Amino acid sequence: MVDAVVRLEHVRRRFGDVVGLADLNLAAPKGSVTVLLGPNGSGKTTAVRTITGALRPDGGQVEVFGIDPDVDGESVRRRCGVVSAKPALYDRLSGRDNLRYAADLWGIVDEKPIEESAARFGIDDALDLRVGGYSTGMKTRLALARAILHDPDLLLLDEPTSGLDPESSHAVLALIDEMAADGKTVVMCTHLLLEAEGLADQVVILEQGRDLIAGPPDALVARYWPNPRVLVDAEERASLDALATMTGVVSYERNGGGATVALDDLQRVPDLVAALASRGVRLTRVVPHEPSLEELYFAVRDRGVE
Amino acid sequence: MKGRRSRLWVVARTELRQLRQSPDFWLPMLILAGLFFVVIPTILLFAITHVHNDTVVAKVATTLDVLPPRAKAAIHGFSPAGRTSYALAVYLFAPLAVIVPMTISTAVGANALVGEKERGTGEFLAHSPATEREIYLGKLVASLLPGYVTTIIGFGVYSLIVNLLVGPQVGGWFFPTTDWWVLMFWVVPPFLAITLSVVLRLSARVRSGAAAQQASGLVTLPLIIIAYAQSSGVLLGAGQTAIALGAVAWVVAIWGLARGAGAVTRARLLGVEGATL
After folding, report:
1. Same domain, A63 and A141
2. Do A93 and B18 touch (CB under 8 A)?
């Protein structure tokens, strides 16, 4: 039995006629990074709001740290840090006042955590300026600083890098890495598949308020692409078609970048290269190909759950 | 319990801090209070007590005929100008003590919750450990204080002006009268609380600050009329009646505030539920 910090079972939530969550199941193990992938309106934000108890589900069960947030939401929220899609900052206050507000609500008396979290995201110099004058990147950094001020056990990030410059995006992704390394649990929503790459211990693909598929990226990739794949290119691309009938080739597909070849075993590569060379094919590239999360996402959406 | 109480104050303090940082909000309110408590009374009372124009005094005096006999009997003064200025100071300006706090507090209260929704900061509060009741009470305190404190300060300044200008005409410092003490510390606070209990409920439910302001205007109007009539002694008289009215108002206020807390929900702070009147 996995020690899940967040567990959602058959959770449903409607907003009038609009379905927010239809039947969402999710388990985020302790110390893991769970990435919720899905298009706009798939229920990612509603899921985050349900986890903290900010939204009460119409049905199903929610457990966070073993507590039902609907019964004792205060205990749950006390241990959560949330960065929402919009930074949710008070523009008329200074950065310091925004952090002070959060610190006071979470019962932090010291000034030290404020200084430290601001320094961690490189906004300590701007802390006494009004947030209204901050750039989008600075606002997100401040929102991040605010979210970790109380050293939360569970960090919930809703589209945290949306609209950010590369430097700020990097700060977000670095935070997730650090939190995971510290044994904290992270749940991140995104529709930017690239940013989830390499971060996720677990991916949950959502559509219309349901979890289509969930699991570690490697396992999911293996499920959709059981054979190893190799990208091959040559000076004369048509000459690559010879690969289609060679021993060990499971599938062959020529595309704009050369060809993608699925093999029964990666050990076949030297033999295939030799065979092509003997036919006078001048290869320019032979690289193993690990499908990206993006490919996985579209495979799940196009091919359905396998 | 200690944590809960302090979170209430945290919400209130931050709301007040935002108001302080917003001269576009407090400057008009300051001008309003200055106008009602200082400028208008000073000009009128100075004109009556120092210009010595009998025609003007007589005209102003006729407007005081609407006062009930009890109020008329209480008017002091050595001369027609003295009696007229006394009556103006004690009765005519009394409603201002109600209009000023209600205008200021309503303006703050109307935006208090819908403003969180509009700015997106409701998301932060919804995910915070603060309870709905703490958020509601924090917003209530932050709405009540600016109006009431402005009124008390204005009341002090007004008292000074009245005593300096009219006092010599009526045999010395006379203000505040008992009725005014009752009005300021017994009648105005519950009226303010009743108004805010309704305004905050509206603010939690409507979709925009503009809608909250409009709806709040409708709520405050009848209360201002009642308070005006009471404070000027026209509707119900003063003295014992004022104390009784204040007592009833306190009961209604406490009931209204207790019920009003239920209007604040996290779903409403997030702007995803109950966005109707």
Report:
1. yes
2. yes
